[in-house]
Write a structure and sequence with these properties.
Blueprint (H helix, E strand, L loop, with lengths): L4 H14 L2 H12 L5 E5 L5 H5 L2 H4 L2 E6 L2 H11 L3 E5 L15 E5 L7 H14 L2 E15 L6 H11 L14 H10 L3 E7 L2 E3 L4 H17 L5 H13 L4 E13 L3 H4 L8
Parallel strand pairs: 1-2, 1-4, 2-3, 4-5
Antiparallel strand pairs: 5-8, 6-8, 7-8
Helix pairs in contact: 6-8, 7-9, 9-10
The structure holds S-adenosylmethionine.
Length: about 270
């Protein structure tokens, strides 16, 4: 599965507006505990996560990890002297450059991962005593308005079914990915908090709505759902008419080793 730089650029403003600020602040507080913090961004794409952290965190050293050389090259160029690129597949957990790091972050990634990967990853985070911040995992909620076709619920159900397919490392957990990682980390002594980071797409976000709708229809079609093309045409007409809105459910996760001073600051953040 590959990710297009144009798609990542299109979604970046919506992602940035959706991120949970309390959890982002919690991650920055965790970074402050280290004299020379190092952040590892897994599946960095063009580096959107680094750009979304404030100036203070951007001054940390960033290890940028992706298997796509073109995306990684852009992320490294954007990070300048503070960034180093690691071209590798996340499937090799032992090869992840986590040694001596302070925080591991990722965005729009946990929903692609299978359970055995999350288990092995949680083991490594626990063994290294690292903080973790995972933003923008799709959680299965998607509501378009106004409704445009009687079959819309089936289309969205097929899309959610497609989320569970193999995205490169085995059958993905899709909408359950972030919640399952939270449980795995709690079982390893982390304090984990989740917060919603939904996309709220308005009629003015027509370009993002269009590409999202095309992706939903493509996935539904691949799952053999009849009516995907009709739904797409109806949805595109509503978008072109300036009357379409959408809410796409995401969650952020911040998990810190129990007993750390930064951990106590996140206990007041509400769960979704
Ligand atoms: C949805 S994109 C998110 C990119 C970026 N984090 C963002 O928020 O814009 C997922 C990223 O994970 C990378 N990725 C997916 N599976 C991977 C794997 N097995 N190994 C390394 N990178 C992977 C893709 O190349 C892509 O850049």
């Amino acid at each position: 599965m590959s990710f297009d730089a144009d798609w990542l650029a299109l979604r970046e403003p919506a992602d940035r507006g959706a991120r949970s600020i309390p959890l982002l602040r919690g991650a920055v507080d965790w970074l402050r505990r280290a004299g020379a913090p190092v952040v590892v961004d897994l599946g960095c794409g063009t580096g959107a996560a680094r750009r979304a952290f404030g100036a203070e965190a951007r001054a940390a050293r960033w290890r940028l990890v992706d298997r796509d050389p073109a995306l990684l090259e852009r992320a490294v160029r954007d990070a300048g002297a503070r960034g180093e690129g690691h071209l590798l597949d996340l499937g090799d957990i032992e090869a992840l450059p986590l040694g001596g790091a302070t925080l591991v972050t990722c965005s729009a990634l946990l929903d692609l991962m299978p359970r055995d990967w999350l288990e092995a990853f949680a083991d490594r985070l626990a063994a290294e005593g690292l903080g973790f911040h995972g933003a923008l995992s799709y959680d299965g909620r998607m509501n378009w308005s106004p409704g445009v076709a009687p079959g819309e619920a089936e289309i969205l159900a097929a899309f959610n079914g497609h989320q569970l397919r193999d995205k490169g490392l085995g059958p993905a957990l899709g909408p359950q990915g972030a919640a399952i990682l939270a449980e795995l980390l709690r079982a390893r002594g982390f304090v984990a908090r989740m917060a919603r980071s939904d996309w709220l797409l308005h009629p003015r976000d027509a370009a993002l709505q269009r590409e999202l709708a095309k992706g939903v229809a493509r996935a539904a079609e691949e799952c053999g759902c009849p009516g995907a093309e009709d739904w797409l045409q109806a949805r595109l007409a509503a978008i072109a008419g300036g009357i379409s809105s959408a809410v796409v459910g995401h969650v952020d996760l911040l998990a810190l080793p129990e007993g750390s001073s930064a951990q106590s600051k996140i206990t007041s953040v509400s769960s979704p």
